[in-house]
Design goal:
Blueprint lengths: L11 H14 L12 H8 L3 H13 L3 E4 L3 E4 L12 H9 L1 H8 L20 H7 L20 H13 L9 E4 L1 H13 L5 E6 L3 H9 L3 E8 L2 E2 L1 H11 L3 E5 L12 H14 L2 E5 L13 H5 L4 E6 L11 E4 L2 H14 L5 H12 L2 H26 L13 E5 L6 H10 L5 E2 L15 E5 L6 H22 L1
Parallel strand pairs: 4-5, 4-7, 7-8, 8-9
Antiparallel strand pairs: 1-2, 3-10, 5-6, 9-10, 11-13, 12-13
Helix pairs in contact: 1-3, 2-3, 4-9, 8-9, 8-13, 10-11
Length: about 475
């Protein structure tokens, strides 16, 4: 906002007007928020009442303030400054994470499209009490410096032990702690790829990864995902055609399909990657609630060509932002260098808290309850959606997701728009496609089992099916 004529120095009125206008435009003063009275504001700013009254009058004239007779002055919605032009690759990456933006801002009341467990699954639990308590602190004083760039050693030791229990040969020196799985993907992409490279990804697959690859200007080519893992024939063909630097995949409780890798497919994937010299990046976000003997690429490969990415976000708390990378020693050392260059280190406080939960047995008891909740919610969701006319198979994976085909005649985009108008947040299948092209794929949506039995969602789904059937009958007649 321009507050004075050019060619003269700013007055005190100019300075106050500029300061308050900036606060409103930046959202620091919310629309409808009451400002101090002229008398009080004059004292706060160290000016006369006449000077303050003039500043308020100019802000009313510019539309930043609203004067209400007998009540005072209130902040008004003000136009935000125009954004600088965004480069095309950045705009495309940002558009990819529109679904993530809704998960963070939480504007919808009914949230079957959310990718995380609901906060209510934490409330009232033993973990909630641990969060609230100040007694979790480990022995000795806490360090207030950066801490090791590798992360809190006792937590790395526990993670390495868990990986050994899953059949993955691993030492603490091969574990690097990160700010969650997404931060792990960031540094792995920086390490493995350069501008213009090609990588393979699951199709459908993890949509925030697609945005990160676009941001790095790396081409993502989809590998068809089947219920028992990546299609080995499609993978082999695309490895030969594109010679990719890496293949990013989620083996167990797959997001978004809920499928799980079979041992036969796992062997073919590892052998194909070895033949073509391609690194596999395997995400394992549900590792702590799945059987240790589940087939994992990292177990077959021994962390030679496979980089394993894990997180506590899906099984503990997304707010803690703690994840990890496990890889061959030379790879994890290079990733640590990138971590130091980008974020220096991760939160020792959060890492020590998680180590406390694990060592005290609190995390294990929480996981038992979480598994039970997921099993119950999944069975209930499948039955309730079938009763509403939406038929979906029981996923074998044990995670949060149902991959739901839309009934004939129901349009994916139209369904999501109508749901949003009713305060229901859906996750359309097209967002999980690396090319964002739904025309050649069946219409789908990802549903989080924790929210799938909400009566408002089920009523909406039932009405959508009824409307599509009525339309089909009308066309036939």
């Amino acid at each position: 906002m321009k507050t004075r004529r050019p060619g003269r120095p700013p007055t005190r009125v100019d300075e106050i007007v500029q300061r308050l206008a900036d606060a409103i435009e930046r959202g620091l003063l919310k629309p409808g928020e009451r400002l101090a009275s002229v008398r009080r504001a004059a004292v706060d700013h160290g000016v006369s009442k006449n000077t303050m009254a003039e500043a308020y009058d100019r802000l009313v004239a510019s539309g930043h303030l609203e004067a209400r007779r007998g009540a005072g002055y209130f902040a008004s919605p003000a136009p935000r400054p125009a954004r600088a032009r965004v480069p095309p690759h950045l705009a495309e990456a940002i558009d990819t994470v529109s679904l993530l933006r809704e998960q963070l801002e939480a504007r919808h009341e009914v949230r079957p499209g959310d990718g995380r467990p609901p906060p209510s699954w934490m409330e009232g639990s033993e973990l909630a009490a641990q969060f609230a308590s100040g007694k979790w602190r480990p022995g000795g004083s806490l360090e207030h410096g950066y801490g090791s760039s590798w992360g809190f050693l006792p937590l790395r030791e526990r993670i390495a032990l868990s990986m050994v229990e899953r059949g993955i040969s691993c030492s603490p020196e091969q574990i690097l702690l990160t700010f969650g799985a997404n931060h792990a993907f960031d540094i792995v992409i920086r390490h493995l790829t350069e501008l213009g490279d090609t990588v393979l990804v699951d199709d459908p697959g993890y949509y925030p990864l697609f945005g990160k690859l676009r941001l790095a200007r790396v081409r993502a080519v989809g590998v068809r995902r089947l219920p028992d893992g990546p299609d080995p024939d499609d993978l082999e063909a695309k490895l030969a055609e594109f010679r990719p630097k890496a293949f990013f995949t989620q083996s167990l409780a797959h997001n978004p399909t809920g499928g799980t890798l079979s041992p036969a497919v796992a062997h073919r994937v590892v052998l194909a990657a070895e033949r073509h010299g391609t690194t596999i990046v395997e995400c394992d976000p549900f590792a702590d609630i799945l059987p240790a003997a589940s087939p994992r690429l990292a177990a077959l490969d021994g962390l030679q060509r496979v980089i394993s990415v894990g997180t506590f976000s899906k099984t503990l708390s997304a707010s803690l932002r703690v994840g990890y990378v496990a890889a061959a020693p030379s790879v994890v050392e290079a990733l640590n260098d990138l971590k130091m260059l980008t974020v220096v280190s991760t939160s020792s406080f959060a890492e020590q808290f998680i180590a406390h939960l694990i060592n005290g047995g609190h995390y294990l008891r929480h996981l038992r309850r979480l598994r039970s909740r997921i099993d119950t919610a999944t069975a209930t969701a499948v039955a309730n959606m079938a009763a509403a006319g939406w038929h979906v198979s029981m996923p074998p994976g044990g995670g949060f997701y149902l991959w739901v085909p839309l009934p004939e005649g129901v349009d994916e985009a139209d369904l999501c728009h109508r749901a949003s108008a009713q305060g229901i947040f859906l996750a359309p299948g097209s967002i999980f496609r690396p090319g964002r092209s739904s025309g050649r794929h069946p219409a789908m949506m990802r549903v989080n089992v924790a929210y799938a039995s909400d009566s408002r969602l089920l009523s909406f789904l039932r009405q959508s099916v009824d409307a599509s059937r009525s339309g089909a009958l009308a066309l036939r007649s």
